[in-house]
Amino acid sequence: MKHLIILIAFLSVFNSCSKDLVPTDNTGYYGKWTLIKMSGSMVNSETTGAAMEWQEFYLFKINRTFIKFRERNGIKTTISGTYTTTNHPDGFYFELTYPNDSEVIGSCYGNLKEELYITESNILSSTWKNCDGPGLEYKK
Fold first, then answer.
1. Which among 53, 58, 90, 102 is placed 20 to 30 Å from 11, CA to CA?
2. Cβ(117)–Cβ(93) under 8 Å?
3. What is the pairing mode between strands 31-39 and 47-48?
């Protein structure tokens, strides 16, 4: 019996020390994520702030819907859709699904879906850069 109690205590401590990739603060990943940096495939092609080609943000809601807003050359575009989340060994991923095509969808596949992930430094990053799209980073 004593060994069983020690084993349970050990497993409880070990489990509580494991790295949890799901955001654990009170607000989690819900809320507004604003574009803070763009980069291209060329060296020194990084831009921030007003120098970026466009300004945009995502607003993730608790009911698994989101809004994406972009302003480019004075034109404001808003689109909404639904999302799912997945906790992979290499990060916390979002799959966004849009109801119709839009120029603001940053995707490698052109299938009304977009993928994002949260980095270890709590930055939301687009996977669009994996197929020659811009590197886009967002901060809450």
1. 90
2. yes
3. antiparallel
